[in-house]
Amino acid sequence: MAAEGQAIDALGQFTLTPALGLLGRSVNFTQANLFMVIAGVLILGMLYLGARPRAIVPGRLQALAELSYEGILKMCTDQIGPEGRSYFPFVFTLFFFVLMGNLLGLLPFAFTYTSHIAVTFALAILVIVVVTVVALRIHGMHFFAYFFPPGAPKVLAPLIIPVEVISYLSRPLSLSVRLFANMVAGHVMLKVFATFVVMMAGAGTLGVIASVAPLALNVALIGFEFLVAFLQAYVFAILTCIYLHDSVHLH
Amino acid sequence: MEVEAAKAIGAGIAMLALAGVGIGIGNIFASLVTAVARNPSARDQVFGIGILGFAVTEAVALFALLIAFLILFT
Question: Domain segments of chain A: what residues?
């Protein structure tokens, strides 16, 4: 919890500890790993149980599985074109892994594995490697013409090419930092306002009445964090689709 | 000046970047509302792009927050 004597301990919630007792301590299986396994089980369970009742008029779970499948497929084909279907499993996995990471952290006593730069940077590096390999496979050496847009005057090439290369290499950085900082900022705010509630409630009867204000703000903040969870997963997936569109077409 | 005080001042100055981000996000949603007001049937098309633009602009705000945290805690 927080140390009221000094500063509020907002960042201690992100430290990793071994999770499953003896198994955790022997192979360093932390809460992040545990929640990744839970997320994987939830996604696979949702898809399997949703695809089993093959009703023409779908029930709720089947509708959830079908809508999520069709939604991501539509996003891929809208952004990348007809050949977007081959990248659909990758984008679907990314979207749901990030979404589950963001959402599971909102449960009490749970951990947000996407709040670690290690996890989000690994995902972003994966995206950039996949995008570059796809581009090299489709276009070969002509891929490097991407960094010099066709209509530009040739005298500006020494200026344009480094700028384009740096902006290409900054894509994984921005992808990872966007997701990681959103999650960290959200959970830090939740922790700080929760500490306010406890501090004010410990200060007598007037404090208990006054502590309703940060509590109400915390409730609104949890609602906002749900929105941010979906938004950040959607933005991660759609930026992956845009980068794939760039590597499949405009080279 | 103590290191702690300098760190706190540095983190505060890093947050001045949020002024530009606030203007940017206001710009995006102002143009989104204007676009929908001019052509209500285009709402579904521009909404996705508007949300993407909002998220990318907010990322800049979070870069500033990241620098502030780096200044404060390392």
Answer: 12-248
Q: Which residues of A touch B59 (CB under 8 A)?
A: 174, 177-178, 181
- How many CB pairs below 8 A link A and B? 35
Which residue segments constitute the domains of chain B, with CATH numbers given? 3-73 (1.20.20.10)
**Model ipTM?**
0.84
Choose the closest CB to B66 out of A181, A235, A239.
Answer: A181
* pTM, 2 dp: 0.90
Per-residue model confidence as pLDDT tens digits over A171-226? 999 999 999 999 999 999 999 999 999 989 888 888 888 989 999 999 999 999 99
CA distances from A52 to A55, A58, A67, A69 (A): 9, 11, 15, 15
Instruction: Please answer whether residues A102 and A235 qualify as being in contact, where contact means their C-beta atoms are separated by less than 8 angstroms.
Output: no
